[in-house]
Amino acid sequence: MRTTIDIPEREHQLFSSLAREQGTTLGKLLVELAHRGLRAPAQGIEDNRSHYPVDPDTGLGIFRSGRPVGPDDVRAVLDETPE
């Protein structure tokens, strides 16, 4: 099924780079990341959300990492995530 989503430029570049490195398409990468997020343990999410402001457009928590997060950082987290 086709759909259109708005992805901020920085994240689009990050996801596109990861997709190329993994030899897959952007769409397949985003589906895989969504599946991983849905399978992640839900415990503690309610508590964590109260500590961060929430983006009104996405409903996602906003946090500052203290430094830019790049493809290597995302790749390291993905490598640590059990499938």
Short description:
With 83 residues, the protein is mostly helical.
Keywords:
mainly alpha; 83 residues; 0% strand; 4 helices
Notes on the protein architecture:
The chain is mainly α and 83 residues long. The protein has one domain. 52% of the residues lie in helices and 0% in strands. It is built from four helices and no strands. The chain has helices at residues 9-22, 26-39, 45-49, 71-80. Helix 1 crosses helix 2 (26-39). The chain is globular. The chain starts with 8 loop residues before the first helix and ends with a helix. The model has no long low-confidence stretch (mean pLDDT 80).
Topology readout:
Elements: H1 9-22, H2 26-39, H3 45-49, H4 71-80
Helix pairs in contact: 1-2
Based on CA atoms alone, the radius of gyration comes out at 14 Å
Helix/strand/pairing category: mainly alpha
Helix residue percentage: 40-55%
- β-strand percent reads under 5%
Number of domains: 1
Given the structure, what is the number of helices? 4
Mean pLDDT: 80
Q: Please report the total strand number as a whole number.
A: 0
Q: First CA to last CA: what distance?
A: 24 Å
Largest sheet: none
SSE topology string: HHHH
Shape: globular
What are the segments in which pLDDT stays under 50 over at least 5 consecutive residues?
none
